[in-house]
Amino acid sequence: MLVEIDQTAALFALIFIAGDDGIDLQSLSQVTGFDHSAISDLLDDLDQKLAKDKTNPLKLLKNDATYRLITKSDFAALLGRYYQSPIANTLSKASLETLTIIAYKQPVTRVEVDKIRGVNSSGAISRLLSRDLIHGVGRKDEIGRPVIYETTNFFLDYFGLKTITELPKLPDPNTLKNVASTDQTDLFQRPKKNENEN
């Protein structure tokens, strides 16, 4: 039995977990059981509250009845410094897992990545996008029209590859679940000659 929760908080949680792909009005209604007009009213109120709250860095973005959360433009310079700093220079385990899956399974959506990893990959995908290692190449023709991701030319340059076919063979070509984090590190080890590059 589900614990009764605030309706606005429920919508906020769903939009947050949907990540960069966002979630449309129809999907929000299907999951929550709320009618479309109620959802629109609740999200209009949420949008105003987020905009007014100076301690909150997020804003609600609506495009074609699809909702997503993004950071407010006030934080652009701060986040830019973070992504250019040594703190963000190495790939985390989550980013590495996500990048491995996208590289070998591309074209692929976030939901497909999530199914393989078993956890939400929105944050990792955002970091990979910001570093130009992956990019969106369109939207899948299904409910919610999720973004389809592929690796970039910069990904090839970064890892010293000429084409994606030069990726090392996986131990098990039918699944990425058997690839341990140490194997992923080996797969995406930059050539030593490039280690000092920015």
TrEMBL record:
Superkingdom of the source species: Bacteria
Region (Disordered): 172-198
Composition bias, Polar residues: 175-187
UniProt KW Transmembrane keyword: no
Record localization: Cytoplasm
Pfam families with a match to the protein in the record: SMC_ScpB
Keyword Cell cycle assigned: yes
Entry function: Participates in chromosomal partition during cell division. May act via the formation of a condensin-like complex containing Smc and ScpA that pull DNA away from mid-cell into both cell halves.
Family membership: Belongs to the ScpB family.
Assembly description: Homodimer. Homodimerization may be required to stabilize the binding of ScpA to the Smc head domains. Component of a cohesin-like complex composed of ScpA, ScpB and the Smc homodimer, in which ScpA and ScpB bind to the head domain of Smc. The presence of the three proteins is required for the association of the complex with DNA.
Protein name: Segregation and condensation protein B
Lineage of producing organism: Bacteria, Bacillati, Bacillota, Bacilli, Lactobacillales
Name of the gene this protein is made from: scpB
